Amino acid sequence: MEKFCIDKIEFFVLNIDVEEKINSKNIKRFIFTSLEVAKVSDYKKYNILYNYIEELKIYQIILYLDSLPCLNLLSNSNDKLVVFSYKSYIFVYKDSKFYYFFNINYSLSLDEIRQLISNKLKINIKNIIKLNAIQNINPKIEYKNIIKPYSFSYLRSFFLLSLFCLFTLLLFIYFNKNEKVKPVNKNIKHFASYEYKVLDLINIVKLTNTYDLLLDEVSFENNKYTLFLSSKNIDKIHNFLDSKVYEVDVKSLTYNKQRQKNELICTIDKI
After folding, report:
1. 86 vs 103: CA distance, rounded Å
2. Paired strand residues for 219
3. 181-232, pLDDT tens digit by residue?
4. Of residues 62, 61, 53, 60, the one with CA closest to residue 20
C-alpha cells in the first residue's frame, strides 16, 4: 500500500497480482480480504475505487476520503485510451473513464511517457495531455466500481437487526416451550482428544472437497486449525470464504506464479 498526496489530497494505492478477472459476485470479498491481508484495518471509512488492469493482470485498489483528483479529468474524446500527465503522476483513461494510475518519480517528455506506457501496458497511446493543474472537468462521469463507506454501515445495521430478530425468536421459543428437555446421560463416554481431531480432519477434508479446494497443509494449535488451501480458480476460494460455515480468519491470500495457483492461509475454530 502506497500513500500519495496530490495538491493536498491524500489517497492510497494497492496493486494486487491475479491470474484472472474476479467474478463480480466475489469482487467485494476479494477487495476486503486483500486490504485485511495488507493490514489496512481502517478501510471501512474510505471510498474504494477498484479496476482490473487486464494488460498487467492486476487489480488496482485506490482508497480516498472525499475526492480523488483523477476521476473527472476527461471531457470528450473519441479515443479509446487517453493519458493525462501531471507532475510525476500518470492517469490513464480507458473507454472515457479513469483506468490506471502510476507515479514515475521523475520528469519525462510526452514522447518518453508514450514509450513508457507502451512498454508497461503494451498499448499504443495517441493522445497524451500534459496538465498544469488538476481540474474537475466532468463531474457527471459515473463509476460503478466504487464501494462507498455507507455500504459498510448498512451491512452492519442489517447484521445487528438480524441478530436482534434472532435473539427475540429464541426468547419466544424458550418461554413458550412446553416440553422439558430430558437430562443428558452423564455416563456417556466422551471421545478421546485424538479421536476428536480425526473427526475434525475428516470434516475439513469434506469441506475443502465441497468447494473444490486443494488442502496443502493443516496444523492444530491453540484450539484452532490453520489451513493452507490452494486453487487455480480464485472464485472457488471466495465461495469458500463467503460460505460462513465456520468463522474463518484470513491470514494471507496470494497468487503463486510458480505453482500458478491462488494460495489461502486461514484459521478456523475447532470443528
Report:
1. 10
2. 226
3. 444 444 333 334 444 456 677 778 888 888 889 988 888 888 888 899 999 9
4. 53
User: To 10 degrees, what angle do helices 27-37 and 234-243 make?
Assistant: 90
pTM score > 0.70 for this model? no
Residue 117 neighbours by CB distance under 10 Å: 21
Task: Find all residues with CB under 8 Å of 101, minimum gap 6, and list them.
Answer: 13, 60, 62, 70, 89, 90, 91, 92
Q: What is the Cα–Cα distance from 214 to 209, expressed in whole angstroms?
A: 8
Q: Strand 97-103 and strand 2-6: pairing?
A: unpaired
- Average pLDDT over the chain reads 80
SS3 content of the chain, % helix, strand, coil (to 5): 30, 30, 35
Amino acid letter, residue 235? D
Type of residue found at 197: K
3-state secondary structure of 235: helix
> Which structural domains are found in the chain, ordered by start?
1-65+145-176 (no CATH), 69-141 (no CATH), 193-269 (3.30.1360)
254 pLDDT above the threshold of 60: yes
Spatial separation of the C-alpha atoms in residues 99 and 259, rounded to whole Å: 29
Instruction: Please give the grid coordinates belonging to residue 261.
Output: 495457483
Per-residue confidence (pLDDT) for residue 126, from 0 to 100: 82
Contact 200, 270 (CB under 8 A): yes
